[in-house]
Design a protein that fits this description.
Residues 4-94 form the Ribosomal protein eL8/eL30/eS12/Gadd45 domain. InterPro entries: Ribosomal_eL30-like_sf, Ribosomal_eL8/eL30/eS12/Gad45. Pfam families: Ribosomal_L7Ae. It is a single chain. The protein is α+β, with helices and mostly antiparallel strands. The chain has one domain (3-100): Ribosomal protein L30/S12 (60s Ribosomal Protein L30, Chain: A, 2-Layer Sandwich). The protein is built from five helices and four strands, in the order H-E-H-E-H-E-H-E-H. It has helices spanning 3-15, 23-31, 46-58, 69-75, 89-100, and strands at 19-21, 37-40, 62-65, 83-86. Strand 2, helix 3 and strand 3 form a beta-alpha-beta unit. The longest helix has 13 residues, at 3-15.
Amino acid sequence: MNEKKIYSWLGLAMRSGNLVSGDDTTLRDLKKMRLSLIILADDASANTKKLFTDKSSYRNIACRQFGTKEELGRSIGKSPRAVLGIKDKKMSDQILILLDGTEI
């Protein structure tokens, strides 16, 4: 997995307006079915991981763990973030390919 490319895609998603970050904003968009992918930081709290894993599973939205809060925040030009949501389906597909190392 090429971490540098994943962080670049996250930055691109942020600049294009296709990324939401933070627990509250991401959870709101997740419930409204506006997201295609949820990315959780490896060092997010157990409660946060369980909440987003359960909610995304129920709504058939992909959810992956990747990076630390610090790295995720830095990649989008913000303070540390435990959870990110990708809105655009094609962008989320590209990020999933990089995360999973397989074609969709």
